[in-house]
Amino acid sequence: MIANAVTWARVKSPWVLHFNSGACNGCDIEIVALLTPKYDVERFGIKLEPSPRHADVLLVTGCVTQQCAERLKRIYDQMPQPKFVVAIGACACSGGVFEGNYNVVGGADKVIPVTAYIPGCPPRPEALMDGVVKLLNALSPPKPKKQPKQPKQPKQEEPVETPTPVEIKPIIEESKVDAKK
Amino acid sequence: MPKSKIDIIKVIESKLENKVQIQLGQLGKAVVVTNNGFHRDVMKAMVDADEYTAISAITGLDLGANLGVLYHVRTSNSFVTLRAEVPKDNPKIQTLTDIAPSATFHELEVTDLLGVVFEGNPLPGHFVLSEYWPQGVYPLRKDVKASEVKLNPPPAEDTEEPDMGRVVKIIVGPQHPALLEPEKFAVTVDGETVTKVEPRIGYVHRGIEKAAESRTYLQDVYLVERICGICNVIHGCNFVETVEKILKTEVPSRAKYLRVIALELNRLHSHLLTLGHAGLEIGYETLFQYFWRDREPIMDLIELTSGNRVYSSLMTIGGVRRDIRESDIPKIKTTLVDLRKKLPFYRKIYEEEPSIRARMKNVGVLKREDALKLGVVGPVARGSGVDIDVRKDEPYEAYAEIPFKEIVYTAGDTWARMNVRMDEVEESINIIEYALDHLPAGPFRVKAPRAVPAGEACNRVEAPRGELFAYVRSNGTAFPERVKVRTPTYANIPAFLKTAIGESIADVPPNFVSLDPCFSCTDR
Are B79 and B393 in contact (CB under 8 A)? Predict the structure, then answer.
């Protein structure tokens, strides 16, 4: 029962932390644009949270640089369980154009487990929204069908008891898909 | 204050006759070949003759047995390069920081990436690379393979800071609510007053200059654009202009106008972004939301004219990759008119709103002489009464044909710097409207040769944040031998270090954001 409430709260109002691990600001500005009047993701309850201690979802942008790798790992460790990581942009997904440079580690998944990938250089705000919504859908339990005579339907396992984030299938999202509102 | 009309080449010739060799017409107005020691004399002569003299950038070169050091110097009416060489086994050269303080950070970067030791530079240690970077490995040297560098293991425990009594060291970053990007500033405060700021950049250093050496010129256009996601168009433009200088390709005039339109749309969105961001930093979130609301139509225009919101790679060697559609011009114009109608409202907010005046007026004052000495560029310099704008000083593309005003404020505080941007928004709208009305007919692209002849060129343009500099050296192969980019934000860091001292810790965020910081530009 409590688990249901927690999942419900998490799905309805995920607090996200944004960490730039060496990005060019392209993705970062698009994330900030999500909060502004045109896209306004706060209407879905998504809130940008400055502290890792309060965050549910970590949005990572950028090819992870040598200096940031250690810091990214530390921020991930500071987040409370369960936690989810979304790699935003081609760089965070795989290293992008910077793959193989002397100061670059590569994609975010070389340092921390990543739940969902949103490619694009940078992904459009619509793609970002779609990616986050898909992540939330993956977290929420399937709705019980309207059969009042069978109230105790077995539900799927909920990801409350410290799942390793890799258990959730990576959601590959095309960068140019327009979100259907 | 009017700029001097001094011919700096004559000054150098008269003061250092026969000691230096002057090659006219290369890398700016001329290259002055200086043997060890004479670069200081030349610089001294230039600083004495012209108050606008500042080091714009320092390029390090790996020339085999020697390391080359190119000092790119900006004066009031020209741009010259001092060339010096040092042997690789003993790469020592005397610093210029005592003559031109603007050299400090540029010298540090060359030390970090190429191992040239500038004797007398006051700042020690790594500036761009990680603390754990192996000793004696300099990534921009040709014998260093990017994939073979192994970092030293980090120490197990962070060292504790000693107790300093009432003086407290506040570490801001790399992950911090006030910073959108990872960078570290150690701010020492005595009570509420800032006494020292130690910057530590390099968290976003991706090694783009080295990576550019292993890609073809055309691939580099896409790579160089990704230095910065905000002002990407100008980075692409600067690089292709530099390569066109080596190729001696003349771009058709329609392409020049189309480039100006793309550049000014980019400047519009960048300035609106910063004006809004300043609101966020002083806790005035409404202003932030308003500005970003009005920025979205500009993003739509960028998408309409170039094909994508952020990275469109419009610039290519020989012109632009796509023409503007005749049917789109009315939409562009109406959007710009809408934005212009909103500007008086924002002006009024910046002029009259008490919270803005309290947090920005007389905060972070950078005096004119300091601005000149530190070599700051762009709106930061123009907010302090220094009238430098590459679009006026050394017109590129179609800027020579387009009338516009150079915005200069003299107060030098945060408020003045933001108002420079506010007025430039209006000027950018005027420029785009003029360019659309006077768009020449003809091709928008010429076929540029794929093979780039051996040679070198440097170029500078006015990015939204100030003068952006690029240097490209070609050795006749398909790949450039050296690509150097000096971004305006890198040149503006000293301004923050200067203005933050003696102010309240609470004034650090608005002061800092008024420089329009962009660390992905700064670090490359």
Answer: no
Q: Which residues of chain A lie closer than 8 angstroms to B130, CB-CB?
A: 66-67, 103
Domain count, chain B: 2
The answer to whether A97 contacts B223, with C-beta atoms less than 8 Å apart, is: yes
Chain A residues within an 8 Å CB radius of B205 = 22, 65, 67, 103
Pairing of strands A15-20, A47-48: parallel
**DSSP designation for A88:** E
Confidence of residue B494 (pLDDT cuts 50, 70, 90): confident
pTM of the predicted protein model: 0.83
Do the domain assignments include residue A175? no
Q: Is A176 on the interface with B (CB under 8 A)?
A: no
CB contact under 8 A, B293 and A50: no
Tens digit of pLDDT for each residue in B78-115?
Answer: 888 888 888 888 888 888 888 888 888 888 888 888 88
Cis preceding-peptide flag for B449 (omega within 30 of 0): no
Residue B59 reports pLDDT greater than 70: yes
Question: Percentage of chain B surpassing pLDDT 90?
Answer: 2
CATH number where A84 lies: 3.40.50.12280
On whether residue B157 sits in a domain, the answer given is no
State the total domains in chain A: 1
What percent of chain B is modeled with pLDDT above 70? 93
CB-based contacts of B311, cutoff 8 Å, min separation 6: A26, A121, A122, B225, B226, B229, B232
The burial of A167, by beta-carbon neighbours within 10 Å (0-12 exposed, 13-18 middle, 19 or more buried), is given as: exposed
In this structure, is residue A146 part of a structural domain? Answer: no
- ipTM value of the model? 0.79
Contact list, B310 vs chain A (CB under 8 Å): 26, 29-30, 121-122
Structure tokens at B382: 């123009």
Interchain proximity A104–B518, CB inside 8 Å: no
Specify the amino acid at residue B13. E
Tens-place pLDDT, residues B204-238: 888 888 888 888 888 888 888 888 888 888 898 99
Residue bearing tokens 């009315």: B330
**What's the pLDDT tens digit per position in B22-57?**
777 777 777 777 776 777 777 777 877 777 888 888
Task: Give the structural domain span for A93.
Answer: 16-141
Strand partners, B92: B117
Strand partners, B356: none
Judge whether B174 lies within some domain: no
Residue given tokens 């080596």 in the structure block? B246
Coil, strand, or helix at residue A20? strand
Structural domain including B289 reads: 208-523
Q: What pLDDT does residue B162 have?
A: 62
Interchain contact, B177 vs A20, CB within 8 Å: no
Q: What distance in Å separates residue B52's CA from the closest CA in chain A?
A: 32
Rounded CA-CA distance A55/A76 in Å is: 10
